[in-house]
Write a structure and sequence with these properties.
Blueprint (H helix, E strand, L loop, with lengths): L2 E6 L6 H16 L3 E6 L9 H9 L23 E6 L2 H5 L14 E4 L11 H27 L8 H13 L1
Parallel strand pairs: 1-2, 1-3, 3-4
Helix pairs in contact: 1-4, 2-4, 4-5
Length: 171
């Protein structure tokens, strides 16, 4: 059964897209049945070109990305979500819609905040560096998440899994 992970950021143009692409990349490379999705509460309607550049420079597929609303994931046709991750502080503070997991319950929720690389100083080169560093940091956490998800679910209860996901952010 596929584990669906939703990654949220307000505008769904940078950090959430970096996260979606990195998790899907590593899951495919490692043969994991995990599918990442991203969305925003106020989607910008475009992907930040520096995010696309950082991903493409690393050989990551971006062909499927688009900026979309989190409302798509509370619809009846949405995939059953196991995990919801917020990656920007404003999205973490917002009242999220109700998302449902595969068993009709609530997915686990965790906040892994990253500074907005769009605000980096130093012109275009500064932004490129910030996006690349953010991509690398996100990629590392997504590898940790995949490692955690390989543990048989029966060996961890919901609280233990929640604590382990929160600990990933602290590392």
């Amino acid at each position: 059964m596929t584990t669906h992970v939703l990654i949220l950021c307000t505008h769904n143009s940078a950090r959430s897209v970096l996260s979606e692409c990195m998790l899907n990349h590593w899951a495919a490379k490692l043969g994991k049945d995990v599918r990442a999705h991203s969305a925003g509460s106020a989607p910008s309607g475009r992907i930040n070109p520096f995010a696309l550049e950082a991903l493409q420079a690393a050989g990551i597929d971006t062909s499927y990305t688009r900026s979309k609303s989190w409302d798509e994931f509370s619809a009846d046709s949405a995939p059953p979500l196991s995990i919801v991750i917020t990656v920007c502080d404003s999205a973490a503070a917002e009242q999220c819609p109700v998302f449902f997991g595969g068993t009709g319950g609530q997915p686990l929720k965790v906040h892994w905040g990253y500074p907005d690389p769009s605000n980096a100083e130093g012109g275009d080169e500064g932004k490129r560096r910030a996006f690349e560093l953010t991509r690398q940091a996100i990629g590392y956490r997504m590898l940790q998440l995949l490692q955690l998800l390989k543990v048989p679910p029966a060996s961890m209860n919901r609280d233990e899994l929640q604590a382990a996901m929160t600990a990933i952010y602290a590392s």
